[in-house]
Write a structure and sequence with these properties.
By secondary structure, the chain is mostly helical. It has helices at about 10-25, 25-45, 50-95, 110-130. The longest helix is centred in the middle third of the chain and has 43 residues, at about 50-95.
Length: about 140
């Protein structure tokens, strides 16, 4: 089955999140944050280390941290989804692979746990076979 990927323009939020995440992870942005902190420290004596002086940095860092949590989560979700689709494609395209595990992340905990136990047993068996000099490549099913 040949399918053509559908591409749609990113939403404004997705585009903003990607752009912001890209720039916030750069050394220049970190240097800017350090410069802001140093500037705040230098101004401490000018403002007699007042409550307002402390409130400015606390409020600023709290707001930035709060907003960054959402941007980072958006980026993480997008990356995880992309990786999952790539893994699904590898499973789908691999001869002998079980297509039933393509949507494993969507199954409930009990079913997921049964799959995990099955693959742990396969790994144990493969390690035992390696210890006897056997090869652990290929598919374990006949």
């Amino acid at each position: 089955m040949q399918t053509k990927p559908v591409t749609t323009p990113d939403s404004w939020y997705s585009s903003f999140a990607k752009l912001t995440a890209r720039y916030c992870g750069r050394p220049r942005t970190f240097a800017l944050a350090v410069a802001v902190i140093l500037g705040w420290l230098v101004t401490g004596p000018l403002f007699d280390f007042s409550d307002t002086w402390q409130l400015v940095i606390n409020t600023g860092t709290t707001i930035i941290t709060f907003l960054m949590v959402f941007l980072i989560q958006n980026t993480q979700n997008r990356d995880t989804e992309a990786m999952q689709v790539k893994l699904d494609e590898l499973i789908r395209a691999t001869k002998g692979a079980h297509n039933a595990i393509l949507d494993l992340e969507e199954l409930d905990e009990e079913v997921l746990e049964s799959f995990r136990r099955r693959y742990q047993a396969l790994a144990r068996k493969a390690r035992e076979e390696i210890a006897t000099g056997a090869d652990d490549t290929g598919t374990p099913e006949p």
